[in-house]
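Recap quiz, item 2
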Amino acid sequence: MTQPNVTLRGPDVPNTPGSLDPVFTVEDLSVFYGDYEAVRNVDMMIGRREITAMIGPSGCGKSTVLRCFNRMNDLIPGAHIKGKILYHEEDLYGDHVDPIEVRRRIGMVFQKPNPFPKPIYDNVAYGPRVNGIKKNMDSIVEEALQKAALWDEVKDKLKQNALSLSGGQQQRLCIARAIAVKPEVILMDEPCSALDPIATTKIEDLMQELRQEYTILIVTHNMQQAARVSDRTAFFTADVDDAGVRHGRLVEFDQTTRIFTKPSDKRTEDYITGRFG
Amino acid sequence: MTQPNVTLRGPDVPNTPGSLDPVFTVEDLSVFYGDYEAVRNVDMMIGRREITAMIGPSGCGKSTVLRCFNRMNDLIPGAHIKGKILYHEEDLYGDHVDPIEVRRRIGMVFQKPNPFPKPIYDNVAYGPRVNGIKKNMDSIVEEALQKAALWDEVKDKLKQNALSLSGGQQQRLCIARAIAVKPEVILMDEPCSALDPIATTKIEDLMQELRQEYTILIVTHNMQQAARVSDRTAFFTADVDDAGVRHGRLVEFDQTTRIFTKPSDKRTEDYITGRFG
Amino acid sequence: MASANNRATAPGPNRSLARSRPRYGEAAVKVLLLAAALVSIATTLGIVAALLEPTIEFFSEVSLGEFFGSTSWGPLFSPPSFGVWPIIVATLEITLIAIIVAIPLGLAAAIYLSEYATPRVRKIFKPVLEVLAGIPTVVFGFFAFSFVTPLLQDILPFSLDPRNALSAGLLVGVMIIPIVASLSEDAMSAVPRSLREGSFALGASKMTTSVSVVLPAAFSGIVAAVILAISRAAGETMIVAIAAGFKSIFTFNPGSEMATMAAFIASAGSGDAPVGSIAYKTIFAVGSLLFIMTFAMNWFSARMVKKYREVYE
Amino acid sequence: MAILSTPRSQVDLVGKGRPLREHLFRIALLSSLAIALIFLALLLAYTLTEGWPRLDSRLWENFPSVRRPETAGVLSGITGTLWIIGLTALMALPTGVLAAIYLEEYADNTRWYNRLIELNIANLAAVPSIVYGILGLGIIARWLDFGFTVMTGAVTISLLVLPIVIISAREAIRAVPPSIREGSLALGATQWQTIYRQVLPASIPGIATGSILALSRAIGEAAPFLMLGAATLVRFNPDGVWSSFTVLPLQIYNLISQSREEFHILAAAAIVVLLAILLLMNSLAIWLRNRYQKRW
Amino acid sequence: GGGDTATPADPGTEATGGAESAPAALAGEIKIDGSSTVAPLIQVAAEIFGEEQPQVKLAVGTSGTGGGFEKFCAGETAIANASRPIKDEEKAACTAKGINFGELRVATDALTVVVPKENTWATCLTVDQLKKIWEPGAEGKITSWDQVDAKFPKEPLKLFGPGTDSGTFEYFTEEINGEKNVSRKDYSPSEDDNVIVQGVAGAKGGLGYFGYTYYEENMDKLTAVQVDSGAGCVGPSAQSAQDGTYTPLSRPLFIYPNLAELKKPEVTAFVDYLVANIATIAKDAKFITLNPEQEAKLKTDSASLKTQAG
Ligand SMILES: Nc1ncnc2c1ncn2[C@@H]1O[C@H](COP(=O)(O)OP(=O)(O)OP(=O)(O)O)[C@@H](O)[C@H]1O
Ligand SMILES: Nc1ncnc2c1ncn2[C@@H]1O[C@H](COP(=O)(O)OP(=O)(O)OP(=O)(O)O)[C@@H](O)[C@H]1O
Ligand SMILES: [Mg+2]
Ligand SMILES: [Mg+2]
């Protein structure tokens, strides 16, 4: 096979499969929109303080799976799952589980930066506030902005409307907003696809830092990005069943180095090498 | 440098720079939206019966430049150009030039398939009709659908609404619609980005066929696609000027093989090898 | 694993994901909101309740055959006659005149605003249309009666009654222009840009694009706009009461005075028909008919919209 | 193929005689718009010139009079209208906004009852105002025994404008991008927190604009009041919700019906007042819309 | 108010000087509804009374005689105006609701048949001719003046009249066509006297009828037709209506106060005021005043009502 043109994270990648300390364990997960089974039989594990990338062609269900991790799909009428997602040892879809509590623990950053049309400060303070925190708000906001590498750029204009920030700054603000509720996991759905290259680089650097403290799951269209930032990669694709219906499917899940150098599945190889997708 | 992982069109690529027979000659083109100079100082040539790809990161002005070739930008209030585009030897923006006539000669296919909500037949017949052609419509429609490799799939349901077709079929219908007015050039702006891999493959095959008769310009985000289908590639990027304003810019324009193997510009190399973008 | 959590304030991974405190407020809010939405159902029920009993009583005294089988209308005359056609015909005639005025003008204005006008022009003209839409119908009636009718009497070759269907119809038409224009404009603006570009890219002119791509694509929205306008026209009361009058004879002559259904309700309702009298019940029977007609048109409109809506999305 | 036979150096890009038809079409479109506007101007000019002799403070300082048309005013109509509008705003706006929130944020469209509510609202928006008059007469005045009072009028008018308020509020709420909601929910906000803290503040300008336009419809209504038998000669201002009243449009209707010319002049002057109030409200709506229009 | 300069005819001044000077500041609301023919009279009374007692709120509606009784018998109004005596059914409805009332004749009306000034031929019409014009059988047939009388010109007949729901219509049809509400339908009915005035004045062949008041207001545009009921042509006037020579179209106008409401001082005050100043009020409202006997009867009737009410 052709040598893929991806710059992989160096040999400092600490994780080996054996060392995976799972935050999520996905067991035979299928996701439905009404009757339509969008994704079928996914098994994977998300390691603590790792970056896991989900790649694959458009429509293969990456976003669908990602949104299962914080029960965002609950909001879509008719959406439901089969199978299990364990968060630590707890069933994420168990009866007693409160999705609102879930979303507080598992933050999310979206494709298009979506700051609230409010001052920067209020954007960051929003999460803590809705969770009933009232004290020390200033320091919570500052800490979150620091961690999101945005503090220096905005510290003098915290009262300014967040929409006046540039795209890259807005996305980092959204990350700060997610961090401010002190989640354990951050889900990111193509967080850079609306950004320019410079902003993208900043976000990627930030992800590397956040990785010290948080577990990160990222969906990306950009193979290079997956290769650059992630520890593990899940490759999804969609295939058509006998009835002519397309279903998303997890093809391969492994360490990123391995996926990009020695994929065990032909489809992964084709995709990586640009023969398809 | 790393060997790019692109599958290049084989050694059968006939064109060498010397053999370029220009349909368009772009001279020092700058494009403005109101006061904002979106693209600066582009010089390039589009060869007859070649496929020319335009690649580059988002926002670098690929679409903007493409839409200059059929004066689509005229429809945007405030948009105007500086510099020249010669179509054969004629100034495309000359005073006497009728943009409607231009668009008849230079067809266009869009990112998202946009069939009219009408029967398939009427979609294809639309172009000839607005150009005053009344006779032999059936054969014009059939021929166009044949060329777009769609005839067999739709010949029994020409009266059916075009919106009932699948995405890939819709896109081929849009190509048929463009062909039906017998243009010389077809412009395509990310024609596959809304399609699944199978449909994409079909469109790419189709482009190879159309290349026998038409001059094709394609904008694509997908480097692999550019490498697979094009004869020549123009690589654009955006840089920020002293005033902090971003302008699109043509970095390199050359045979595709060369761009992907021996780019002469560092930025091209970075982009191709996934170090950036 | 809990020990690995070095952030003091962070929730321990083993802390349950169960609801930390009950949220009765959320449920209460939802009930309140639903109650607000149900007010509209209550309104409809109220209308039906108000109409139903007197209508049933009416039809126990007057046969459907007489109601729909005769062309003589005079519930307050003696002997009373209950052939509803004169007021239906008057209603339809005025509505017809109105839509003949409003559809071409409204649609043309909509095409202009949506396809031709620059954003600045649109920003000026849409509010002006809204102003036109907000003018009270008494004002239109006054204008029709005291300005338009005398004017028409001067310029038209045939004779016009001081109150007549023609000027009332014209003014009802003007009244509904903004409805047609504004809602059609919304529908046309909602047609994706890509369709227009597709048409332009084939060498089509602006006119062709507007007429053969945008209009058909916005068809369902336009139908909905027109139907809403028709129901407004059919139910309009003040303009016809002032400018078309209350004469209930069976005529198609637009120069003649005639009473529409709404005008009949208004005049009989503000008049002296004693409660319980057949004349009084007539008001409700006509009201029911008007309500059913509106309902039928809207049902049709909803079906049209559903059938064609956003198939291209 | 045609293009291939074209000698390359002589590709002729000059158009063929399209412009005339295009121009005529454009002119036809513009004149349609112009007709509507000319009409508006004519109407304003006519009422203004007709009413000019009586456009002075007597109009809003004096009560109506059958004895002295020269000095009669429409004070009770103005105050009655203000009462009705005030109460309508109090009743219809909150109810309408809450209903709109329910339909946009909570209602599951696959449920039949939610679809029924929607269809019902669309239908109510088209029900003739005279039918609301029947509702007011039969249910509110008689059955609920509210009598022929300000309250009856206000409830009737509230129900009349409710569908309009709901429809415009829904549009304003829908204009708030879903990404804002998702952003909030993803932070662990509850649905009501999301609505109350994000969706509502962001849609308030739109809701306000729609509400003002709905209220301006309410101001001009006369037909339901005909059914409610609001008194024609009211020489006092309502002092509460259980008071008798009249409204400006109804007073105008009555003035038009008088045979003495002086009353027609008075009617025209009253129309100018009514139109002035409406223009004011419309301008406010436009200003709100332009000022707070959001670009996401 | 703007009417500070009292006209000499202003009964307000007279009343203050009168014997029953109104008691100090009354308050409350008096709802009156009924005949639109009687309304102007009551409105004038309400207006003048209101100037003296600004705290008393008088709302005068014009729902028609029947509509007025309907509200009256439902207890919604204090006084009903009527252009005809109350009917037995209406009495029964009132009794059923426990409403006791009295009847006061407050003025006289002369239904006036009008034609435009250009009409020079129809100076006097017999009751039979009027019937020929207005009977149901005339509908669509009698469409020209020469069909009424061969001597008249061949001018198209355009008919205007009050709405079918008014007491005026009821009275006119009874007197002319012999039965209540029996009439041709192809005339322009209107509650709104302006339309009748405009319509008749605007058509050479126009003919309409309405209360005398409206004729008085529009004498410059319209001519009143004399009516011949067998005793020669008589035109409508205060004189002919009062002395009963204008037959059959002169009629009494009434108000019906609710006795329970009469207990309220403001209602009594208003009725007293109306009775005491009836002549000037009627004149001011351009109504035909009562003749002395009728006025005397009004005073005794109202006095006995007050004792009945207690
Ligand atoms: N709300 C929904 N209702 C029904 N089907 C949906 C919904 N959202 C997504 N789908 C379908 O589910 C499948 C997977 O969609 P998903 O958005 O997860 O793909 P993706 O891999 O994220 O694609 P992309 O790369 O384009 O974002 C697709 O076929 C899509 O059409
Ligand atoms: N109608 C417009 N008005 C103003 N600016 C515009 C307009 N269209 C595009 N631009 C700006 O011009 C620049 C180039 O845009 P363009 O759409 O050509 O980029 P592109 O290379 O096609 O990007 P993409 O890959 O995202 O499609 C961008 O900065 C964009 O914001
Ligand atoms: Mg996705
Ligand atoms: Mg583009």
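The domain at 20-114+184-272 of chain B is CATH 3.40.50.300 (Rossmann fold).
The first strand of chain B starts at residue 22 and ends at 33.
End of item.
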